TrEMBL record:
<dbReference type="InterPro" id="IPR003595">
    <property type="entry name" value="Tyr_Pase_cat"/>
</dbReference>
<dbReference type="InterPro" id="IPR014020">
    <property type="entry name" value="Tensin_C2-dom"/>
</dbReference>
<feature type="compositionally biased region" description="Polar residues">
    <location>
        <begin position="445"/>
        <end position="461"/>
    </location>
</feature>
<feature type="region of interest" description="Disordered">
    <location>
        <begin position="445"/>
        <end position="487"/>
    </location>
</feature>
<protein>
    <submittedName>
        <fullName>TNS1 isoform 13</fullName>
    </submittedName>
</protein>
<dbReference type="Pfam" id="PF10409">
    <property type="entry name" value="PTEN_C2"/>
</dbReference>
<feature type="domain" description="C2 tensin-type">
    <location>
        <begin position="249"/>
        <end position="375"/>
    </location>
</feature>
<feature type="domain" description="Phosphatase tensin-type">
    <location>
        <begin position="72"/>
        <end position="244"/>
    </location>
</feature>
<dbReference type="InterPro" id="IPR051484">
    <property type="entry name" value="Tensin_PTEN_phosphatase"/>
</dbReference>
<feature type="compositionally biased region" description="Polar residues">
    <location>
        <begin position="468"/>
        <end position="481"/>
    </location>
</feature>
<dbReference type="InterPro" id="IPR029021">
    <property type="entry name" value="Prot-tyrosine_phosphatase-like"/>
</dbReference>
<comment type="similarity">
    <text>Belongs to the PTEN phosphatase protein family.</text>
</comment>
<dbReference type="InterPro" id="IPR035892">
    <property type="entry name" value="C2_domain_sf"/>
</dbReference>
<dbReference type="InterPro" id="IPR029023">
    <property type="entry name" value="Tensin_phosphatase"/>
</dbReference>
Length: 487
């Protein structure tokens, strides 16, 4: 057991942040940084989450976490900070997307002070959100792995994060990982669940308690608020690691997207959908606008001829263009990776579609079907998919509302009056990926702090490129995911 460092010396009532799991674990990932007991922490006039329970220092300084408190209740509270020891060496720090900027900055500083006091130079912060120069100035070691809120990261990015975590945790028994997030905690959930599967293969049996704690945290706190595509990518990652999912290296050409069940986005029913398709978060296709009157159709088919070649991480987003209004709504969103697609016909039910799975305007029986082939030529015998005469299509896609890309600014830095940091770039592909999991592999990520060193034995420049680990046949890399706007 590692002796705890003294708490920060600042006025205020001392709080105790409990690990998410109650039992202390052992082994490289489970050495307690402060013993099996609680960890002292002081904050001034702030609201702190212990696990998922909000406490106020001046009123309830020793309140124990309420383990069965619902996530929805937690998120509805006007919280400023959610800090959880998922295991003794994996810390999740999350802020709501609506956090007041002034309070957010203040809490960032206090979290940094606590981490330095408790863990010294033995913590590595993974930023899963938008880049902020103040984060890299507050922490000596930062890896930038951000992606848009409510989305899933690229499959190779998940692999890179897990490799980086494992490398850091195995380098020193005192080392801890801090997962930083602003927005929906689904981002943290993806990382926790993926690393749970990763460590299940690469780690020893004495870390079973850690894996149990990660599983419990994910199921209790993340699944109720996560998106279907996030769960899908965790399933991909787990299956590719275990070998239960075989990689498909064949090119796939998308010919038809069929929406079974018409959503009601207009006052009289019906909708005006159009598609935008992204490969590696870069737009590759925009459809025309389909006008579908209410109760006139049971399905609509959007045909792409010749077929659209897709490879790697794919995002398909279906919008509704409001009638006589310069606005658009998201009907559904779905992310998938072509390496896991083995059938030429793939169907996603409502429960599999981001946004739509909880939208009453999308029918409960609704589903979206994708028709692929192995070549761009028109598929014969698909005449039955043609839409009826009541469906008209406007191919004027020059409308700025249609062309506007909601992912084009994510990698830009937030202007908070602090100095700019160098943007990260995509590194080389090394030709390997999911077939083998190696312990103490090279660290992947991007350090972004002044005078920061890469958390390995040798010092490197302040900003290290992403060196992605991805099969050359698995698709395009997405080292630079683009925007915090998800509409």
């Amino acid at each position: 057991v590692v002796s705890p460092l003294p708490p920060p010396h600042c006025p205020g009532a001392a709080l105790h942040v409990q690990p998410y799991k109650e039992a202390a674990s052992h082994g490289p990932h489970g050495a307690s940084p402060g013993g099996a007991g609680s960890m002292p922490l002081k904050l001034v006039g702030k609201v702190l989450f212990k696990g998922s329970t909000r406490v106020t220092p001046s009123v309830q300084p020793h309140l124990q976490p309420i383990r069965n408190m619902s996530v929805s209740r937690t998120m509805e509270d006007s919280c400023e900070l959610d800090l959880v020891y998922v295991t003794e060496r994996i810390i999740a720090v999350s802020f709501p997307s609506t956090a007041n900027e002034e309070n957010f900055r203040s809490n960032l500083r206090e979290v940094a002070q606590m981490l330095k006091s408790k863990h010294g130079g033995n913590y590595l912060l993974f930023n899963l959100s938008e880049r902020r120069p103040d984060i890299t100035k507050l922490h000596a070691k930062v890896l930038e792995f951000g992606w848009p809120d409510l989305h899933t990261p690229a499959l190779e990015k998940i692999c890179s994060i897990c490799k980086a975590m494992d490398t850091w945790l195995n380098a020193d028994p005192h080392n801890v990982v801090v997962l930083h997030n602003k927005g929906n905690r689904g981002r943290i959930g993806v990382v926790i669940a993926a690393y749970m599967h990763y460590s299940n293969i690469s780690a020893s049996a004495d870390q079973a308690l850690d894996r149990f704690a990660m599983k419990r945290f994910y199921e209790d706190k993340i699944v109720p608020i996560g998106q279907p595509s996030q769960r899908r990518y965790v399933h991909y990652f787990s299956g590719l690691l275990s070998g239960s999912i075989k990689m498909n290296n064949k090119p796939l050409f998308l010919h038809h997207v069929i929406m079974h069940g018409i959503p009601n986005f207009e006052s009289k029913g019906g909708c005006r959908p159009f598609l935008r398709i992204y490969q590696a978060m870069q737009p590759v296709y925009t459809s025309g606008i389909y006008n579908i009157p209410g109760d006139s159709q049971t399905s609509v088919c959007i045909t792409i001829e010749p077929g659209l070649l897709l490879k790697g991480d794919i995002l398909l987003k279906c919008y509704h263009k409001k009638f006589r209004s310069p606005a658009r709504d998201v009907i559904f969103r779905v992310q998938f990776h072509t390496c896991a697609i083995h059938d030429l016909g793939v169907v996603f039910g409502k429960e599999d579609l981001d946004d739509a799975f909880k939208d009453d305007r999308f029918p409960e029986y609704g589903k979206v079907e994708f028709v692929f082939s192995y070549g761009p030529e028109k598929i014969q015998g698909m005449e039955h998919l043609e839409n009826g005469p009541s469906v008209s299509v406007d191919y004027n896609t020059s409308d700025p509302l249609i062309r506007w890309d909601s992912y084009d600014n994510f990698s830009g830095h937030r202007d908070d009056g602090m100095e700019e940091v160098v943007g990260h770039t995509q590194g080389p592909l090394d030709g390997s990926l999911y077939a083998k999991v190696k312990k103490k592999d090279s660290l992947h990520g991007s350090t972004g702090a002044v005078n920061a060193t890469r958390p390995t034995l040798s010092a490197t420049p302040n900003h290290v490129e992403h060196t992605l680990s991805v099969s050359s046949d698995s698709g395009n890399s997405t080292a630079s995911t683009k925007t915090d706007k998800t509409d």
